[in-house]
Structures are given as structure tokens and as C-alpha cells.
Design a protein that fits this description.
The chain has about 350 residues and is an alpha/beta fold. It is about 35% helix and about 20% strand. It has helices at about 5-25, 35-50, 75-90, 100-110, 125-130, 145-150, 175-185, 210-220, 230-240, 280-285, 335-340, and strands at about 65-70, 90-95, 120, 135-140, 155-160, 165-170, 195-205, 245-250, 255, 270-275, 290-295, 315. The strands form 2 sheets. The protein has a 7-stranded mixed sheet with strand order 8-9-10-7-6-11-12, sandwiched between helices. A 5-stranded parallel sheet has the order 3-2-1-4-5, with helices on both faces. The two termini are about 25 Å apart.
């Protein structure tokens, strides 16, 4: 497909996403889950705009179709995969999570007049495996089960397994305004997404009381979603209290200062750790450094310390949910690898 034609199709898809954003802002129910409307609206606007910057490497290889196992925690993943299908005219099928089909179907309905090569539905586990074998390349988004699914497929597969994001900041840069941005990064999608900030490393003395007003304010904007499990939150936070050096808590959020990585990570909970250097933060993370998706940094020159990690997206605080187009292609992965059907990319 010529670049001009692909740009035109991406522009049309962008218009569809903007229409979806308008429905969100208006208050229409567009998904089985009631998401954080302000966040979803902002993310949809960002994705629509990011289509303008999608890269255009020349197509090579024999991959002409994609099968995508979608995650059940963040609804916008199909919109982030979609440009690959549009630009290279690839037939694509989205295997929908059992807890969210309506979001995709609303989007598919808006697309139907222009893109007949996009399809998706909920399938049983066995049926999904059978259908996936009919496609040239498979994306699997999800938790530990993603790896079990991949083992059963005789196909080139890219797994986006369990991931989480961190932040690193010097105590001198931790202002009340930055605290609000950190709260936004943490509470987004109830801390369920791979780009939701789980751990904040503070270089120097960390007094977490600075987060009290920030979390009160942001939690009123990003209220719990309809699938928020309050029992898990209550149980998890009660367990964490025993290991907390300091904590503050609201009705549906918590900030806990700890020394080590806890074994239990409740939703809408931020863990804060004091360190002397980025090397200290990496030592605390241990092998978890290879499960990182994003990193928010107080100063972008700190990126060099996180080269030996799996971080694929560095951002300012408050921007973790707004990666550029093509962000999901992690280290060692590029569009041509996928188009060529390279295994284990």
C-alpha cells in the first residue's frame, strides 16, 4: 500500500477514535466495564493524534494476517495494535476478553464501513487456539497464562506478559504538583495496566505525607472502575500495613513506604522506597527489572541507568498512559520482525 493511501486510512481511523472519545465525554456507556471517563477520554484523544506519527517501514516477508489475544485490564490495546493492520493491509482478528466485549464492538461498528479486514469476538479457549493457527502471526497480551497459550501454538508469537511501571525522582524535585502527577500515573485504570506506576523510588528522605492531598484530589477524578474489587483492596492493604514504615490511606487508595518489594500488590496502591542512587533501585528490583514496561523519571538524563532493563517507554510523570505510536515494540522487536514472521521476537 502506498504511504499516501495508508495515511488516509489512518486519518479515517483517527476520526473514528475521536467519535468514540466524544461518546465517552457525553457519558455514553461504551464498554461492559465503566472505566475512568476522564482518563479514557484523554487516552483516546492521544491515540487518535498518535496515528499521525506512525512509522512506515517497507513491508517485507509473508505475514498477511494477525491474531491478537487481548488483555482484560486495559480496553485501548486493540487501538494500539490497529495501525499495523491498517498500514500493511493485514487481516486481523481480536480474541476479546470475557469481561469486555462491548468496547471493541462499539469501535468495530464505527469502523465497519471502511475496514472490512478487522474482526473480533469472544471465543472459548480451545476455539481461540484453533482460530489462531489460521493466522500468520500471533500477539498475546496478558498475565502468566500468556506463556501457556504460546506453548500450544505452532506459530510466530509475541508475548506481552506481566509488566509494570516504576518512577524515579530526587527528593528535591518531589513537589506537590509532581505528587499529583504521580497519583495520576498510579490510579490510572485502577493500577491494573502495565503502564500504571507501581513503585516510586525517591533518592533521599521520602516523607509520603506530600501525597495525601494529591491522592485525595486525583482519586476524586479517577474514581474506581466498575470492576474494582474492594475486597482485594481491603485485604491487600491490611497485609501491607504490617510491612509499612509509613502509610497514608483513603477510602480507595493507599501510599505505603516500604524497604523491599512486597509480595502482594493491591490495586490503587503506590509503594515508595528510599534509595541513594538508581543502582540501589535496580538492586531492589532484582530480576523484576526485566518485567518493567515504563519508567517515569524526574530528569530524563536518568534513562542511562535503566538500559539494562525491559523498559520500552520513558516518560515524564503524569504521562505514562500516553506513549507514542508504536511504543509496544519492545527492545529487540520491530515491525519488520513481525511482518517477516520472526519467531520469539
Amino acid at each position: 500500500m502506498k504511504k499516501e493511501d495508508a495515511r488516509l486510512l489512518l486519518a479515517k481511523a483517527s476520526e473514528v477514535i475521536l467519535e468514540l472519545a466524544k461518546r465517552v465525554k457525553k457519558g455514553d456507556r461504551i464498554g461492559d466495564i465503566e472505566y475512568q471517563r476522564e482518563l479514557l477520554y484523554m487516552v483516546l484523544l492521544h491515540i487518535a493524534d498518535s496515528y499521525n506519527g506512525f512509522p512506515f517501514p517497507e513491508k517485507s516477508g509473508d505475514v498477511n494476517s494477525l491474531f491478537v489475544f487481548l488483555p482484560g485490564n486495559v480496553p485501548v490495546v486493540p487501538l494500539q495494535v490497529l495501525p499495523i493492520s491498517i498500514v500493511y493491509n493485514l487481516k486481523i482478528f481480536f480474541k476479546l476478553p470475557h469481561n469486555e466485549q462491548l468496547f471493541f464492538h462499539n469501535f468495530r461498528k464505527l469502523l465497519s464501513n471502511q475496514f472490512d479486514f478487522i474482526d473480533g469476538n469472544y471465543l472459548s479457549h480451545d476455539e481461540a487456539l484453533r482460530r489462531a493457527e489460521e493466522y500468520d502471526f500471533v500477539f498475546i497480551f496478558g498475565g502468566k497464562t500468556a506463556y501457556r497459550i504460546a506453548e500450544k501454538l505452532n506459530k510466530p508469537v509475541r508475548i506481552f506478559g506481566p509488566r509494570f511501571s516504576i518512577g524515579y525522582i530526587n527528593k528535591l524535585d518531589l513537589t506537590e504538583e509532581i505528587a499529583k502527577k504521580i497519583a495520576f500515573d498510579n490510579l490510572a485504570f485502577d493500577t491494573a495496566g502495565c503502564l500504571s506506576l507501581r513503585f516510586l523510588f525517591v533518592q533521599g528522605r521520602a516523607d509520603i505525607s506530600i501525597f495525601r492531598e494529591a491522592f485525595k484530589y486525583i482519586s476524586s477524578r479517577l474514581q474506581p472502575q466498575s470492576n474494582f474489587d474492594r475486597d482485594i483492596f481491603e485485604y491487600g492493604t491490611s497485609v501491607i500495613l504490617m510491612d509499612s514504615e509509613q502509610f497514608i490511606r483513603g477510602a480507595d487508595w493507599m501510599v505505603s513506604k516500604v524497604k523491599d518489594i512486597p509480595t502482594f500488590w493491591p490495586p490503587r496502591t503506590l509503594f515508595v522506597m528510599e534509595v541513594n542512587s538508581p543502582e540501589d533501585a535496580l538492586a531492589i528490583l532484582g530480576d523484576l527489572r526485566y518485567n518493567l514496561q515504563g519508567a517515569a523519571l524526574g530528569k530524563m538524563e536518568l534513562k542511562k541507568y535503566f538500559n539494562d532493563t525491559s523498559v520500552s517507554y520513558f516518560s515524564e510523570f503524569g504521562k505514562l498512559q500516553f506513549p507514542p505510536s508504536g511504543w509496544m515494540f519492545e527492545k529487540g522487536v520491530n515491525i519488520n520482525n513481525i511482518l517477516k514472521g520472526v519467531k520469539d521476537v
